[in-house]
Design brief:
150 residues, alpha/beta, Nucleotidyltransferase, domain 5, 5-stranded mixed beta sheet, 4 helices, 32% helix, elongated
Length: 150
């Protein structure tokens, strides 16, 4: 009688342990680097007493305004549809984004906010470029002035 080895049943399983290890390493990397991601640039807006809120300016229009920021170093940023601010744009890139958004909804407000320490020339240059691009109305953003006793 000849020796016959036992026949093994083939199984088709995927070993997921290496995938779990890689996932945990990536999770740790993202958790460590997340605090270092810069979500925006601090802009100290000038203060005024007569400023209107965006809601008051945006009568019967649910579209959020296009916000253009100029930081203290003159760097430009834009936020469209309340999205995160995109920084480091050139003036031409900024104008292109604003014009593209206004082409789809011409009634969208355009608001420019400049840091209080920004040279006035940077704000005027941005306003002038928006005007030459055909943006009809541009608002200037400010913070409300604190009233004495508050």
């Amino acid at each position: 009688m000849a020796y016959q080895p036992k026949k093994r049943k083939m199984t088709a399983e995927i070993n997921v342990v290496p995938y779990i290890d890689v996932m945990l390493v990536l999770l740790i990397i993202f958790m460590v680097t997340a605090p270092f991601v810069n979500q925006g640039v601090d802009v100290d807006l000038p203060k005024t007493q007569t400023a209107e809120t965006v809601a008051q300016l945006n009568n019967n229009n649910d579209t959020p305004p296009i916000i253009v920021e100029v930081d203290k170093d003159g760097n430009l940023g834009v936020s469209i549809d309340n999205a995160d601010m995109v920084h480091g744009l050139s003036l031409d890139e900024l104008i292109g984004r604003v014009k593209a958004e206004l082409a789809s909804d011409p009634k969208t407000l355009v608001m420019v906010g400049g840091d209080g320490r920004t040279p006035y020339a940077n704000i005027v240059e941005t306003l002038d470029a928006l005007s030459h691009a055909g943006v009809g109305s541009v608002g200037l953003m400010t913070d409300p002035l604190d009233k004495p006793g508050n």
